[in-house]
Design goal:
By secondary structure, the protein is of the alpha/beta class. The protein has a domain of 227 residues: NAD(P)-binding Rossmann-like Domain (Rossmann fold, 3-Layer(aba) Sandwich). The chain has a 7-stranded parallel sheet with strand order 3-2-1-4-5-6-11, with helices on both faces. Strands 7-10 form a two-stranded parallel sheet. Strands 8-13 form a two-stranded parallel sheet. The chain is globular.
Length: 328
């Protein structure tokens, strides 16, 4: 069994990854500054004999050096996340997403750790292809549009990780996440599924940005973290980039309609211009669909849970949370 460091381990994906690693018998150290991660995401694991939780920032190099001591595998998930957060504070995005990654990569080489880098479909920018393969060109907008700061910063992280693999032989896997959803995800940072579910359960209108014709694919976090851990255990995956997510597209309006149907809500759907939410200089991507051929060829599988199953899981979790809130 391995000793694993999960940066951002109190976040949505990080907490599920931590839970999965513990279920496999690994020892896990979580490092999170709790800026977007939440202690309640790990509350059910409190007192676990193989879990250590450290509160602190990945921007602290002394803390990182101490956290990496005796670690075998680093899962680097900590980052500035969410379209709204990135648009509101691009400086924080760049500072959080680039410098700490380079520090962790250097420490991983010194400690001979394996390294998983959580990247994002945002690195493709506004590439016009119908489906994106891992070797597609990255097509970003103007630097005057802060929306692209996140994708650019994660692309630099990828360049760094691959450079450390080539130069030092670091065992690196890069995973580009495509709209990962599930229990524990909140809608504070622009995440559309929890936002729609919250609005539907409250009997409020579901707010769709632009015309709702944007196309996305949604994967269950459980399948995603299982995929990540399996890739890390395969030497053939080291030094490679993988799209990780679902490849079944749905428009945002269709998503809203499905949430209303599955919650039984009487909510209407209201369209709001992007500019009213993110500012006049915001740009979005109309279609974001991954090609999962590389992932499927490497693992023999890919995420397959249907959108309906995923939404039912999120809705059930949210209803449980609301029942607890009412009792309190």
């Amino acid at each position: 069994m391995s000793k694993c460091l999960v940066t951002g381990g109190a976040g949505f994906i990080g907490s599920h990854l931590t839970e999965h690693l513990l279920s496999l018998g690994h020892e896990v150290c979580v490092l999170d500054n709790l800026s977007t991660g939440r202690p309640e995401n790990l509350a059910h694991l409190a007192g676990h004999s193989r879990l250590t939780i450290r509160t602190g920032s990945i921007t602290d190099p002394v803390l990182l050096a101490d956290a990496v001591r005796d670690i075998h595998v680093i899962y680097h998930l900590a980052a500035a996340v969410g379209v709204k957060l990135v648009a509101d504070d691009p400086v924080r995005t760049i500072e959080t997403n680039i410098y700490p990654t380079e520090t962790l990569l250097r420490l991983a080489v010194q400690s001979k750790c394996r390294f998983y880098l959580a990247s994002t479909s945002e690195v493709y920018g506004k590439n016009p292809r119908e489906r994106w393969t891992e070797d597609e060109d990255l097509v970003f907008g103007a630097t005057s549009h802060p929306r692209w700061a996140y994708g650019c910063s994660k692309a630099i992280d990828e360049f760094l990780a691959l450079a450390y693999h080539r130069k030092f032989g670091l065992e690196v896997v890069i995973g580009r996440f495509f709209n990962v959803v599930g229990p524990r995800q909140v809608g504070h940072y622009g995440m559309v599924v929890p936002r729609f579910v919250d609005q539907a359960l409250a009997g409020e209108p579901l707010i769709v940005y632009d015309d709702g014709g944007q196309t996305r694919c949604f994967a269950h976090v459980r399948e995603v973290v299982q995929t990540v851990v399996r890739l890390m255990d395969l030497p053939i995956a080291h030094g490679q980039v993988f799209n990780i997510g679902s490849d079944q597209p749905v428009t945002i309006r269709q998503l809203a309609e499905e949430v209303i149907r599955r919650t039984g809500a009487k909510s209407a759907i209201e369209c709001v211009p992007y500019g009213a939410v993110y500012g006049a200089d915001f740009e979005d991507v109309r279609r974001r669909v991954p090609d999962l051929s590389r992932l499927e060829q490497t693992l023999g599988t890919k995420p397959t849970l249907s959108l309906g199953t995923i939404l039912d899981d999120v809705i059930a979790w949210k209803r449980d949370c609301l029942r607890v809130e009412r009792r309190d």
